[in-house]
Structures are given as C-alpha cells and as structure tokens.
C-alpha cells in the first residue's frame, strides 16, 4: 500500500511537472510570433493602401474643420449642433459658388498672363546659364513650361489621357473627402466609439480621451492655418498691388496657400513673384522680394507661432524631416498632410507610449532637458 501511495505521489509529481501551465514558454513564444506576424501584415496593408488612407485622413481633417466652424458659431447662433453644421455647409457652398463666379472671368486671364511672363523669364535665365555652360531646363528651356499650361492643342491632345486621368482621380478624391468630412462631422461620437471598441474594456476610457485630444489638436491646427493663409493672401495681394506687379491676387493666393506647407512652401512661393517682377526692372524686383520677405518673416516668426502655440509644439527639425520623408514616399498629398499627421502622431506617442508604456511624464522630461 505504501508502494501504491508512493507510486501515486510520483505519478502526481510527474503530472504536476508535465502540466502545461507550469511551462508557459512555448505558448508565450507562439503568442509573440503571432503578434509579430499580425503587426507585419498590418504594416504591409497600410503601406499598400497609404494613398487611400491619406485621402481618408484628409476627410477627417475636413470634418475637424466643419466641427471647429460649428463650435465657433455656437455663441452667435442659438441652434443645436446639427443645424449649425448645416449652416456652415450652406455658407461654404455659397462662398465657393461666389468664388467660382468671380474668379471665372478674372483668374484664367491673370494666370495666363503670369505664365507667359514666367515662361519668358525662364528663357532669359536659361540663356544666361547656357553662356556659363549650365543647362538647367533642358534643350527647350522654359518653353516646355508654357506648352504644358497654355493652349497648345497638339500637346494637350497628346497628353489627354494623362490629364483626364489626373482630373478624374482629383475629382474622386475631392468627393470622398467632402462626403467623409460631412458624415464624420454630423456623427463623430459613433465613429469614434466604433474604433474604441477594438481595445480592451479597461482601456477604452483612456483611448477615448486621447482620441478627443487628437481631435482638439486637429481643430486648433486647422483654425490656425486658415487664419494664417487668409492673412498672408491679403497682405501679399495688397503689397504687390501697391508696387504695381501684374496679377497680384494670383500671386497673393499662391503665397497664402503655400503656408499650408511649413518652411518649404514659402520658399517655393517666392519664385513666381521674382519671375514676374524680373522683366519690370531691378528696382521693382528688389521691392517685390524685400516686401515678400518682410511679410513672410513677420508671419513665420511672430504671427504663426502665436496662433499655433496652443495647437502644435513640435521642433522645426522634426517637422521638416516629416515633410521630406512623407513627400518622398507619398508625393504632394504626403507633403500637404505631413504637419497634421505629425501633430496627432505626437499626441499618440506621448500618451500611449511615453506615459502609459514607459510610465514617464513628458512635461517633467522636457522641463528637465531645458534646464
């Protein structure tokens, strides 16, 4: 009997030792492998659909703009949120129609005039460079520039498929952004909660709070950018009109829109202004460049930081790195959306990784680094 009990005890010991619960290593390794595989598959799918995801993100940005506009009307218009959003959409539709009606007779003529002037100046610059043995714009020089944009019927027909394809893609993307923005703006809570459901129940409140913070950052950034674009457009328009430069509104508009892309946009916007001013004399060229530089410096170093201080606090070098990388990977859309992407990405990294995963306080870290 003692032998039987000893055998049972030995059997029990063997059973306990062979219990899989006491050897979690294989199961843990399997779970880690599956997690890594799922992460790799997810990254691959994101990479393959990044262009579409950027369009979807642009729709979210448009929804944030509509929401910010509706919030701004709340103290003035005593209506519920749905009616205020409807009023915002009607106002935007009216402004768009007025802009198209007003610009249809003026903008094409001014644009053609500016293109002719810039084309001529590109030829002059090319001739000067060729005298030094530098061929900057190819054998045809600036003529290729005008043939693409002016009414050259043969070239237009030869590139008809490219133009129609690009126009259809642009129109499709614009419609997707428009309808997504309207749908997200009218019912943001249900769309947010449908994503919050994908995380553990104990972590849903934290995820909801971080997503609300991301929405606030996007709203503040969009409002700030809109103010900067309007101010820059008006200032450059009035200044160039005052010194007598042709097409001041078009030049002011492109200078204002260029502020949507930090650092690189204003530099690129200065090139058309300089090309248009060149044939009018050295004094007018100097005046145009100096005035634009002063306006841009005031906007970039004074007005811009004051407006965006509450929305985005990102070191300029990281912003420029994001613009270059996203532009190289995803083209113009990546450049245009680089700033809002890095803004909400910063929020996600600080909240989910630095605070929740590392258990650190970003404010104390930054203050300690500055001291």
Descriptive overview:
With 371 residues, the chain is an all-alpha fold. The chain is built from 15 helices and no strands. Helix 3 (50-73) crosses helix 4 (81-131) and helix 9 (204-243) packs antiparallel against helix 14. The longest helix has 51 residues, at 81-131. The relative contact order is 0.08.
Shape category: globular
Number of strands: 0
Distance between the termini: 77 Å
Strand content: under 5%
Number of helical regions: 15
Unreliable spans are 8-18, 140-157
SSE succession: HHHHHHHHHHHHHHH
Mean pLDDT over the residues: 76
Instruction: Give me the secondary-structure category.
Output: mainly alpha
Largest sheet: none
Measured as a percent range, the helix fraction is: over 70%
Which value, in Å, is the CA radius of gyration? 29 Å
What is this structure's SSE topology?
Blueprint: H1 2-17, H2 25-48, H3 50-73, H4 81-131, H5 143-149, H6 153-158, H7 160-186, H8 188-196, H9 204-243, H10 248-257, H11 264-277, H12 282-308, H13 316-336, H14 338-357, H15 362-370
Helix pairs in contact: 3-4, 3-7, 3-9, 4-5, 9-10, 9-12, 9-14, 10-11, 11-12
Condensed summary:
The chain has helices at 2-17, 25-48, 50-73, 81-131, 143-149, 153-158, 160-186, 188-196, 204-243, 248-257, 264-277, 282-308, 316-336, 338-357, 362-370. The protein has 371 residues and is an all-alpha fold.
